[in-house]
Amino acid sequence: MNENYDVIVLGTGLTECILSGLLAGEGKRVLHMDRNEFYGGESASLNLSQIYRKFRDGVAAPESYGRDRDYAIDLIPKFMMANGAFVRMLTHCEVTNYLEFRQIAGSYVFRDGAISKVPANEAEAVQSPLMGLFEKRRAKNFFSWIQTYDQDDESTWQGLDITQVTMADVYKHFGLEAGTQDFIGHALALHLNDDYLERPAKETFDKIVLYSLSVLRYGKSPYVYPLYGLGELPQAFARRAALRGATYMLSKPVDALLFDDDGKVTGVQAEGEPAYAPVVICDPSYVPDKVSTGAKVIRAICLLMHPIPNTDDADSAQIIIPQNQVGRTSDIYIAAVSSGHRVCAPGYYVAMVSTVVETDDPNAEIEPALNLLGPIADMFVSIVDLHEPVADGADDHVYVSKSYDATSHFETVCDDVFDLYKRVTGKDLVLKTWEELQQTQAEE
After folding, report:
1. Which tens digits make up the pLDDT trace of 312-347?
2. CA 321 to CA 354: how far, in whole Å?
3. Which bin fits 220, alpha (ψ -120 to 50), beta or left (φ > 0)?
4. Which InterPro entries does the UniProt entry name for this protein (predicted)?
């Protein structure tokens, strides 16, 4: 392995695999290693035996659950916005040929003790129990403003310059009730908490537009999901990177990072062998001395034998429990998929509950979500620290990704990819527009 590379990447989490794919596509000589025997790291999908080895110290799974190969259970819950940056990233990196997707059947929000579908069109909005008659009129005025707003045409602003006013100012202008604000801010804009209220309204405006465009793309819900689990995503990027010359090594423990006298990284040593590169990209687990620990996230993987109640027997769903509905600071997320997504045996469903830990009793914090699931056949709970790099990597050329947060969508992962790419290359990652992607596909 005593060779020189342009970049060494440690860990095959999704963020790292996207970066190696991007850099290999630009002609960089990439070496990509992982201590695990499988792709994905913390974003892997495991079969039934692997799940039991990880969470139950090797206790065998009940035979009644079916065949091992029928399962690909995600360790983190993430869906893709159909019109979001992540789907554009998949297409930009030309990895969609390695993947199959299925739409998530419905998007739901918990309000006033009940699960309600997030309206996907005007007809559903009229019938939705989320708002009363007068509030629906006020909300209609708000969404009409969203649809007609043009930053270059002040006559469309209604006195609200979204780059200057806060989202709290916008809600006040339209007279929207607190429950409606919860629905808009958390179920549509997908904010983690209410901090967004005092930030410029443009941030929330853009998120609502993204949600709306994603719903319009396929109908029913804004989310899509890969067949056979999220573990297919890093593998797809890895396959594409390998075709572009990247070298992959699994089951390769890293002994240490190597540095010169000036403190700049020169490579890594793995199982006694050196490999050299002026740049190292890695997940936080490889450099615990270069990350800070902030919040904790609790995740509960729940195996069900029925669809989640009160979701019209949907085979898949996202349910958001806004913080204010359960007296918290952070939202609680439920992401559910089924055998139709090739992640579990026929007749079974997988629901994952996740949230930021706020108390000394994390298990009690997710009870409001667990109570919505009905009988649970089996449950696997993890509580993990969220890590962030303490430096940007400019001094030592070691660039560290962030941990995966509690959200059930990939937009925050995309933010980290954009940030890492700029730190490593010194330039912005510019994805092709939908029009450019369609033109490329037409030419092919």
Report:
1. 999 999 999 999 999 999 999 999 999 999 999 999
2. 11
3. left
4. FAD/NAD-bd_sf, GDP_dissociation_inhibitor, RabGDI
Here the tokens at position 325 are 């509905």
Dihedral sign for Cα atoms in the order 205, 206, 211, 213: positive
Answer whether 407's CB lies under 8 Å from 333's CB.
yes
Contact 116, 130 (CB under 8 A): yes
* pTM score, whole prediction: 0.88
Place of tokens 């190969």: 69
* CA-closest candidate to residue 12, choices 28, 33, 31, 30: 33
More confident of the two residues 123 and 298: 298
Q: Is pLDDT above 60 for 443?
A: no
Give CA–CA dist 159/124, Å, rounded. 30
Distance CA 84, CA 216 (A): 12
Tokens describing residue 82: 């159909």
CA atoms within 13 Å, Cβ hemisphere of 326: 24
Instruction: Pick one of 2.130.10.10, 1.10.405.10, 3.20.20.70, 1.20.1270.90 as the CATH number of 119-218.
Output: 1.10.405.10
**Residue 61: count of CB within 10 angstroms of its CB:** 19
CB atoms within 10 A of CB 15: 26
Nearest to 381 by CA among 43, 40, 53, 55: 55
Nearest partner of 401 among 21, 14, 6, judged by Cα: 14
**3-state class (DSSP) for residue 429:** coil
149: exposed, middle or buried (Cβ count in 10 Å: 0-12, 13-18, 19+): middle
Q: Residues 192-231, buried b or exposed e (16+ Cβ, 10 A)? A: bbbebbeebbeebbebbbbbbebbebbeebbbbbbeebbb
Q: 3-class SS at 158?
A: coil
99-132 CB burial, b ≥16 within 10 A, e <16: eebbbbbbbbbbbeeebbbbbbeeeebeebebbe
Distance CA 59, CA 54 (A): 10
Could you report the per-residue pLDDT of 195-210, keeping only the tens digit for each? Answer: 999 999 999 999 999 9
Three-class secondary structure of residue 380 per DSSP = strand
